[in-house]
Amino acid sequence: MSKKGFERPERLQFSGSEYATETQAVRAGQWRSEEGEHSDAIFPTSSFVYTSAREAAARFSGEEVGNIYSRFTNPTVQAFERRIAAMEEGERAVATASGMAAILSLTLALMKQGDHIVCSRSVFGSTVSIFDKYISRTGIETSFVNPCDLDAWQAAIRPNTRMLFLESPSNPLAELTDISAVAAIAQSAGAKLVVDNCFLTPALQKPLLLGADIVMHSATKYLDGQGRVVGGVLVGNDADMEEVFGFVRTAGTCMSPFNAWIFQKGLETLPLRMKAHSEQAFALARWLEAQPQVKRVYYSGLESHPQHALACEQQSAFGGVLSFETHAAVDDLRSSAWRCIDATRMLSITANLGDVKTTITHPATTTHGRMTAEARAAAGIHDNLIRVSVGLENIDDIKADLQLGLDAI
Ligand SMILES: *Cc1c(COP(=O)(O)O)cnc(C)c1O
pLDDT of 93-147, one tens digit each? Predict the structure, then answer.
């Protein structure tokens, strides 16, 4: 880590990079103060003091390593960054205020006017908007492609393409992208591949080991895992992250120490939670497939999933999110889905995901409601589609609650 002038002293710090993911989740990156606290300390301070004017000058000039101001560095934020960097097997991480702040910071730090992005069309709704509506204003253009079609990725490459961006599995239809294959396309084009690893996390998929250059997270989801705070993070090599860090410390898209502390604690249980979420979602997907009211289930763990073999290759499990379509008449598609959602009693009707609480949502009128009907149809998000982020309640209680919904279809 070459954060000249902005790194904590190394002596009390445990990098943990030689350990397995479960061990890193608990131990990597902790910076222990001289008090010897066992749990991670939290440093809610906006600025830092010096013993003399000379020391202040040395810090500001970069001659001396240390903190200055929490828009630049903060020990709690750095501890979270070191832990997630170790877990994703990257050189360095930069934490941001939200997942969207991560995408904005990354794009403005690494790209310039006249550059071009190729992006999967099946990415988070705000990701489409930020590229299409806002980043486009800086003269950086984005082309959207079918994430499953390698020829489409290749065909979209232009001489000025600098970044390829994807999410795998996608939300809500669990479409997968062959990350190694797209990494090869990016490499031969001299562009960087960025993977939004929000749905699987490093506990289940490590895009950097598959050839991606940068991993991005909405830490808001599984990294926290209990639906408390909003945050984001980027992981990559030292050179790229130094650029991103430069942007974040200047633009102020930084993470707060309170949130970093929550995420740091969240990471400790991440591998355990992802294993449990995956087991629960797998059981629920199998059960839903057998229900007469269900037309189709989208989950990469099912053998009926067209890319199940790819899922087994690049993921170590299938994650906690699935979606399904109701059997309904053409003029009853939306109503059937709404009746199902409304008849559940315990499940939370919310668009958030990655929580210990199971959530249920109607993508066509919430997360994907701002797309035109044609764009939704092209993306395969039909009005009878329901998404479930499977939480950690007892699986029989989740099934019983969904049964109430299915009975109302
Ligand atoms: C939520 C989400 C984002 C945006 O993250 P925020 O923390 O809400 O800004 C980006 N990508 C995916 C896949 C998400 O689910």
Answer: 999 999 999 999 999 999 999 999 999 999 998 999 999 999 999 999 999 999 9
Nearest CA to ligand 1 atom 4: 99
Whether residue 302 is found in the same domain as residue 218: no
CB 260 within 8 A of CB 74: yes
CATH number at residue 186: 3.40.640.10
Q: What is the pLDDT of residues 78-93, one digit of tens each?
A: 999 999 999 999 999 9
Q: Check residue 60 and give left, alpha or beta (phi > 0: left; psi -120 to 50: alpha).
A: alpha
- Using CA atoms, how far apart are residues 228 and 289, in angstroms rounded to an integer? 32
User: Which among 268, 283, 310 is the end of a domain?
Assistant: 268
344/350 Cα distance (integer angstroms): 13
Examine residue 4 and state whether it is found in any structural domain, yes or no: no
pLDDT in tens, 259-318: 999 999 999 999 999 999 999 999 999 999 999 999 999 999 999 999 999 999 999 999
Following DSSP, what letter does each residue of 107-131 receive, concatenated? HHHH--TT-EEEEESSS-HHHHHII
Calculate helix-pair angle for 238-251, 99-110, nearest 10 degrees: 110
Q: Which of 218, 222, 368 to mutate to test the pocket of ligand 1 (most atoms within 8 A of CB)?
A: 218
Q: Which of 235, 268, 301 is the last residue of a domain?
A: 268
Alpha-carbon torsion angle 187, 167, 234, 207, nearest 10:
-60
For ligand 1, atom 6, name the residue with the nearest CA. 99
0.90 surpassed by pTM: yes
* In a domain? residue 305: yes
Ligand 1 site, CB within 6 A: 98-100, 124, 126-127, 167, 171, 196, 198, 218, 220-221, 230, 232
Residue 3: inside a domain:
no
Residue 300 structural domain: 270-407
